[in-house]
Amino acid sequence: MSDARLVEDALAIQALFHRLLAANEKVTVAYRQNRQPLTLVHLEAERLALAMGRGEFEAWQLKAGEKVSLNLEDRGFTYEAVAPCEGHGTAEDLPCLLLGLPRSLRRTDLHRLVDFAPDADVACTFTNARSALLEGVVKGLGREGVELALRDPRQRIGDFFRMGEESTLDLPLEGNLRLVAPTKVTYLDEQKVGLCFTEQADHSLLGRYRTWLDHQQQAQAQRDRDAMIEGGGRRPVRRGSLERPAPRLWVDKDPLLLVLTEQDDFVQRMAEGLGRKFGFLSLDQISGPVRPQVQPWAGPGSADWGRLRLVIVHHRLRLASPLELTRQLSQEERCPLPILVAGPEEDLELKRLRAVEAGAVDFLAVEPFRILRVLQQLDQLLKLFA
Predict the structure, then answer these.
(1) Closest Cα to residue 79, out of 109, 112, 46?
(2) How open is the CA angle 37-39-42, to the nearest 5 degrees?
């Protein structure tokens, strides 16, 4: 059985990044004091391209040949890696950080019992110490135990389990193979519980289960390799679609605020909480000048922003960093509107300083979302720039 906690096979590593690319997922890149989630936009056999503006690349003072740290998540597993910087360039018409493909990936969630994540949900039943019969879904399987979630998302793991409690697992696998085993809770959170097999488990049955698990891992790895080869795994792989989503009008009201973000739930929260006072327009996957992408709400002239009165640059962006996009708006596009960078309130003064240095007028703390504070800050700012 291969070590599922260390990935060193080049094709398996390519397949993992291919899945991230297809899912439009981000990879967190760290270099010295800098750390930023970046969107993977292009993949070749030996190279990754992640969206990063030239200004941010220069601010990081990265040079070709230097190593950066990567953190990523795939199939519920978290990994870390080291990759060589190959400089700055362009991919898919976007400015990008170019990295060599990592030679290995190491799991960072070693407390978990999981070695294998099924491609499809596997139903099971299990009990708690109070003999309650519960319906669950397998999140992952390991040689020493399993990780489960409750089938009903309204139920909370903490209401049924405590650390160290015993549980009986009943898991149908395939054919006549059915794993019925005593287990003990070794970790839990709000969504899942880790159950470790106890010494009282049938060792013969566990042996058959582990053999089946080995075969499942090998079959999944082979499917991944086949998909890479069939899809041209050694040729450049692009994101599934480069079409930019259209701006979305959440509340048609003046004054109209433009929110640049990849998270619809953030705009929805803003619109539901502040929609009686402000209008909201959102834009995702920002590439290139912003104003032409928000027609017809922006006016026809190059300096005319039409109905828009304020821009909020959220800290979660798909193809840029918030500070880089703020610099673009204020310096390259010469946007006359007040710009706010929005994000968590931790280190508020430092974030405010960096936002202002990039060209914003202030930093808007939105996590946690305190509606009265946000309303007051937006209202005062719009009156100041009226």
Answers:
(1) 109
(2) 145
Return the DSSP state at 203: H
| Total length of the chain | 386
CATH (residue range 123-201): 2.40.10.220
Residue 218 is encoded by which pair of tokens? Answer: 């090998």
CB-based contact 337:311 (threshold 8 Å) = yes
For the CA atoms of 78, 83, 89, 93, the dihedral, rounded to the nearest 10 degrees, stands at -20
Any idea which architecture 6-109+223-237 has in CATH? Roll (2.30)
Over the range 130-142, which residues count as b (16 or more CB within 10 Å of their CB) and which as e?
A: eeeebebbbbbbb
Q: How far apart are CA 91 and CA 212, in angstroms?
A: 42
315: exposed, middle or buried (Cβ count in 10 Å: 0-12, 13-18, 19+): buried
Domain residue ranges of the chain, discontinuous segments joined by +: 6-109+223-237, 123-201, 248-384
The structure tokens listed for 125 are: 């039943």
Q: Please list the pLDDT of the chain residue by residue as tens digits (386 residues).
A: 445 578 888 888 988 998 888 777 889 999 999 998 888 888 888 899 998 888 889 889 999 999 999 999 998 899 999 999 999 998 877 889 999 999 999 999 988 999 899 888 788 888 877 878 888 888 899 999 999 988 887 888 888 889 999 888 888 887 788 889 999 999 998 888 999 999 999 999 999 999 999 999 888 888 887 777 665 544 455 554 445 567 889 999 999 999 999 888 899 999 999 999 999 999 886 767 888 888 778 766 556 788 899 999 998 877 677 888 898 899 888 889 999 999 998 888 889 998 999 899 999 999 888 999 999 999 999 999 87
SS3 139: strand
Q: Is there a common fold for 6-109+223-237 and 123-201?
A: no
Name the fold adopted by 248-384.
Rossmann fold (3.40.50)
